[in-house]
Amino acid sequence: MKYYPKRRNGDEYYPRGCSTFVVDRFGTELYARDRRGNQFYPRRRHNIFAKTRHGFEYYAKDNAGNEKYPVIQKRSLLIIDPQTHTVKLARFADGTQRYPYDTKGNEYYLREKGLPYLLQNSEGKPYLAKSFRGAPFIPWNYFREYSLNDHLHTPGKDAAGNTIYVDESNLPQWLQSIVRCMCEIVVICPAVAGIIMTFV
User: Fold this and answer.
1) Confidence of residue 149 (pLDDT cuts 50, 70, 90)
2) Does 70 have pLDDT greater than 50?
3) Angle 146-148-149 (CA atoms, 0-180°, nearest 5)?
4) Which end of the chain has the smaller Cβ count within 10 Å, N or C?
5) Residue 75 has pLDDT above 60, yes or no
6) pTM of the full predicted structure?
7) Contact 160, 111 (CB under 8 A)
8) 196-199, long-range: CB within 8 Å, 24+ apart, which pairs?
């Protein structure tokens, strides 16, 4: 089996001009790893995903065993099953389905029949996508089910363009006061909500 070359700090790297992955003795393509053991995707290459010996693409993992998506043009690139044409979701080490995310780490919703849908945790229960700060995003079609009646919610858009709502109590303190003053403006100009979302 061949190995990836290493830098002085111990990180492996993908050689320039090489469009193939290192392959183990069983025929599975391998991702390069950094010095901490995290697998990472190649850059500036058409074939980003490595394949198993059976020819199926698979996601890279961090050193804790969590699968992760590559981010291309500000959004996650997902594996599509060539036979069923369905999305293959990345999963955390405990089996929880992982939401795709943008360059900042804000998760967003996928759609089924035009509607955003929730993914499932390791216990098979649905859970909400979150911002990079940990604030839950409530998709518009689940608002009644997940919103708290005595809380104010700010509308916005996720990276996929889905309308979402964020509990104002999860906003930074300084932003909460601004949001209260801008509620009427958001109704008139929804684009303002997108600006607010950058601070969530």
Assistant:
1) confident
2) yes
3) 125
4) N
5) yes
6) 0.83
7) yes
8) 196/154, 196/156, 196/171, 197/106, 197/131, 197/156, 197/157, 197/158, 197/164, 197/166, 199/171, 199/172, 199/175
